Amino acid sequence: MALAAPAEAHGGPRFADDPTTLVDTSIGNNGDGTTFPGATTPFGMVQLSPDTQLKKYASYDYAQDTTLGFSHTHLSGVGCQTMGNFRFMPTTGAVTTSDPAQYGARFSHADETRRPGYYGVKLANGIGAELTATQRTGQHRYTFPGGATSENVLIEVGESNGYTYAGDVHVVGDDTVEGWLQGGNFCWETQKERYKVFFSAKFDRKFTSFGTWTDSKLTPNQRDAKLGSQRTGAWLTFGTDSNQVGASVGLSYTSVDGARLNRGAEQPKSFDKARKAAHDTWRDELNRLRVAGGTIADQRTYYSALYRSLLHPSVGSDVDGSYRGFDDVVHRSRDTYYQMFSLWDTYRSQNQLVALLHPDEAADMTKSVLKIAQDGGWVPRWALAGGETNVMSGDPVTPWVVDNYRRGLLDDKTARQLFDALWRNANEVPKDQSIFRGRDGNPSYVKNGWIGYQDLPGYTYGDTRQAGSATLEYALADCALSTMASGLGYGDKAATLRARCGNFAHLWDTSVESHGFTGFPRTKAADGTGVGDPDPAKSTGFHEGTPWQYQWLAQQDTAKLFGLMGGPAQAEKRLDTFFDMPLLLTDPAKAAKDSWVHGAYDYHNNFAFNPNNEPDLHAPWMYSWTGAPWKTSAVLRAARTLFTDTPYGLPGNDDLGTISSWLVFGMAGVFEAQPGSGTYLLSTPMFEKVEIHPDGGRKIEIEAPGASAAKLQYTTDVRIGHRDYGRSWISHADLLRAGKIQFRLSDTPTTWGTKSAPPAM
């Protein structure tokens, strides 16, 4: 397939005929990005992908050269080991071991084929493995070398990339294997959350012999086995009359019956037809936000990021609507039930992209959060399948829900039920925190306006250990929820929540100085005294960041924030120091590489921008409130240099598409810097043409003649339709009906967008 032509060819910028050819699923396949290269569909239940290591954040590491097998569940870009369930591995010869370190096979990247919806590899032992997927099934095709004495498929059920606690396997008849496992303990936060997942695998040939194993003991002709201390699985041997074996594997989070049902309902007519269907789905998906212009590297980087942005949340319900709730009971839903909610990450960028492109799916995802609250009793924070992990801090679910409410995606009944759950979450604490920790900082926060710091062991005190950053997160969430309360007509509750919008100011310590600036947020004890080292590059109580990075997490009320900083001009000077603007304007790549935070886990002891992590992702757009939106465009072009079209092309964990969505928005020229507001800020696009095709909506065209990611460019003026547009922001509703947005660009800074600041939340 031909790649898209650069902007100069054929007389101007052209959209790619097939944007899937511009996606490289190997980008981020390392210990920093922790993405996976395998086959999946948008928001699919199944992610069928190779594993080269176990009990690591990334179960596939590009630096390694041995495949342990191909498992059916993966999360894209997480910072803890998890999933990697039901690993299949083709082998030849006698089956003598259950240890993947013994039966794994070497491979070369030159022998891999990676495309959206497809993964193929020719192993060094001569076996060819091909993978594709439907929404709820994984499709395998193994081609064995001629002369093999036997053709086997090994299925590991008990040992995954994450922790497993129970499970078993059953060989059914002469062409089917089924089983289940219980996993959990994600990020070691509660050490209690669990999920169940089931599979049903049907082969296209009958096996001639079989056996099962528990740990290292292999038992021929045994049909059933249970998890021992480490492993359990089955092996199947096929005759050598044919050199090809295919398998269709249905997954379910409800039961083996559900897995069988999903497999039957989505069974493709052939592997090749499944592969083509997955390709066509991804081609259509990537055309929802397509670009033209720039270099091949620009387009590869962009489309690969768009691909990663649309992998999660994942479908959790079976084809008949059954899903396993947070009460560990199987329920039935008329709407698709979704799971895998990394909310602390995705509420800042990825949720907005999904809601823009897929409003119906975003609505179902939001209803799924309501079902979690109804089934389990509380709204989630970081939901892994049917378990609440309680990972991270703050209240990310609230702005995530409010954003979808502000976009008009929720019916009135759903909105009111969700508000009730969010209001409860914002004011109370679960009595039994064994499942949901909730906002454990509420007792002191509701009383005083800040969370009193406590350095106490145990997961029930997560927010009080991160009291500084969690206070800022609570304030943003409460401010967002106040707008929902107003929209629903809850005046008193809206006023209560609105009064909390400025709670970030309670942490402002005017005695702290750093890099020539006075006043920074500082963690407080319940009695109001400061806690820990006052240095805002080192302070205690800020989750994966420092006060220098978290000082910008008050975007709901920039007037109040900038007042604490000494006014917009002083705030702009802080931003200039934060981004190293003098160097950035002369050498953007050097500023990004040398001045900003680098390293996926380099969270602390820093005063500079951290593009690898979430807390300050919105900071480049804070210039819109200081009267210098041109600097946002400069920062984003510097950030673009950190992303490449190589396996090491992600600067940090992608966190279920968060960083990728941030890049997509930054390159397209629109971004919601105030989660929960429904208001986008505009910046200079990096492509000459951008087309947005919301599902069920009208096309939005963005034109920026001469736009390039390779040089600093600024917006001179903007036209929407036939009228000039001087504001640096646009509402979601206005964006949907904009039709055409035209940017005119300059190589020198401009005053566009400076006459008025974007609104407060």
TrEMBL record:
One GO CC term on file: cytosol
Region (Disordered): 1-35
Listed Pfam families: Glyco_hydro_92, Glyco_hydro_92N
Superkingdom as given in the UniProt entry: Bacteria
Any one Gene Ontology BP term: glycoprotein catabolic process
Residue ranges of every copy of the Glycosyl hydrolase family 92 N-terminal domain listed in the record: 22-252
Stretches assigned to the Glycosyl hydrolase family domain: 259-746
GO terms of molecular function: carbohydrate binding; peptide-N4-(N-acetyl-beta-glucosaminyl)asparagine amidase activity
PANTHER family recorded: PEPTIDE N-GLYCANASE PNGASE -RELATED (PTHR12143), SECRETED PROTEIN (PTHR12143:SF39)
Official protein name in the record: Alpha-1,2-mannosidase
Species annotation: Amycolatopsis mediterranei (strain S699)
Lineage per the UniProt record: Bacteria, Bacillati, Actinomycetota, Actinomycetes, Pseudonocardiales
